[in-house]
TrEMBL record:
Keywords attached to this entry: Kinase, Transferase
Secretion signal span: none
Protein's recorded name: Carbohydrate kinase
Record lineage: Bacteria, Pseudomonadati, Bacteroidota, Bacteroidia, Bacteroidales
Similarity comment: Belongs to the carbohydrate kinase PfkB family.
Residue span, Carbohydrate kinase PfkB domain: 25-291
A GO MF label: kinase activity
InterPro entries cross-referenced by the UniProt entry: Carboh/pur_kinase_PfkB_CS (IPR002173), PfkB_Carbo_kinase (IPR050306), PfkB_dom (IPR011611), Ribokinase-like (IPR029056)
Organism: Candidatus Merdivivens pullicola
Coiled coil residues, start to end: none
Length: 298
């Protein structure tokens, strides 16, 4: 399946400039995901939009320089997205996301429908569904993936600012078969959908209510869990010298997805995801090059 253009892994949603204290870096969770999947040897595609402006030109040029396909990044008569990011004393990012930008207006096209027919895994989040155009496109793309593909549909929830609501979250929970969220998001979702209990009880209720096969719960420095039908994997977070954590979660999702597509167990996929995301934490920005020692485990 690796490097097979008939078995594509897709990141659909935002692509933007992360305006970090040390300068701008290319980012956006679905784009980060697709980038890291490509580093791990899979045919990946980014579905998004940029503006008819210099920041949009720069994004496309950088992606091409990284040997990433840009055929599914539309040019839109809106500004290219940016996010102002400040990093606190623990290396944790805080975001200020510009509204009504190009990636809010991703069109659904015949070309996208053809891509859906070849999709074996797709990662999407809540942020790019904040406006109706991109929300409609994301959901149309998910629905266009043939059932016989048995595709992984990963809802990496990524709650940001106030750009989410219950309808969007619940619709996405019904459409995914893998859910990834952090401990803070778990608390928000629990209150939103009216469930309570221990972490294990909350996770079990979410998985059963929305028929989710795998639930990934990350808890920062306290470790991460992966819950499957008959499996629970816990791994501590490695102690590394953190540059920033921007994009670390997206690299985790990418490595986990790549591992599952290769037939690895949940435990093996979890270990690969932790190792890759720990390395990304030691680098600045969301799209560092992975060393051969990590690429080779795939």
């Amino acid at each position: 399946m690796k490097n097979d253009k008939n078995h594509v892994v897709v990141g659909i949603g935002e692509i933007l400039w992360d305006m970090l204290p040390e300068g701008r870096k290319l980012g956006g969770a679905p784009a980060n995901f697709a980038y890291h999947v490509s580093q791990l040897g899979f045919c990946s595609r980014i579905v998004s939009a940029v503006g008819y402006d210099m920041p949009g030109d720069d994004i496309l040029n950088i992606l091409r320089a990284k040997s990433l396909d840009t055929d599914f990044i539309e040019r839109i008569d809106k500004p290219t997205g940016t996010v102002e990011i400040s990093i606190d004393g623990k290396g944790i990012p805080e975001y200020s996301i510009k509204d009504n930008v190009a990636w809010d207006n991703i069109p659904f096209t015949d070309k996208l429908a053809r891509l859906a027919a070849k999709t074996k895994a797709v990662a999407f989040g809540s942020l790019a569904q904040r406006h109706h155009v991109s929300a409609k496109t994301i959901n149309a793309f998910l629905d266009a993936i043939p059932e016989e593909n048995e595709a992984l549909k990963i809802f990496d929830i990524n709650l940001r600012q106030d750009f989410y609501d219950r309808n969007t979250v619940e619709r996405s929970l019904h459409k995914c078969n893998i859910l990834k969220l952090n401990d803070e998001e778990t608390d928000i979702i629990s209150r939103m959908i009216g469930i309570s209990g221990t972490i294990e009880q909350v996770v079990d209720t979410i998985r059963k209510r929305y028929s989710i096969g795998i639930l990934i719960l990350t808890c920062g420095t306290k470790g991460s869990y992966v819950f499957g039908h008959d499996t629970m994997s816990f791994l501590p977070t490695p102690k590394v010298k953190t540059a920033d954590t921007v994009g670390a979660g997206d690299s985790f999702t990418a490595a986990f997805t790549a591992s599952i597509l290769q037939g690895k167990s949940i435990e093996e996929a979890h270990k690969a995801a932790v190792d890759v995301s720990a390395f990304v934490c030691t680098q600045y920005g969301a799209m560092p090059a992975l060393p051969d020692t990590l690429r080779n485990i795939f």
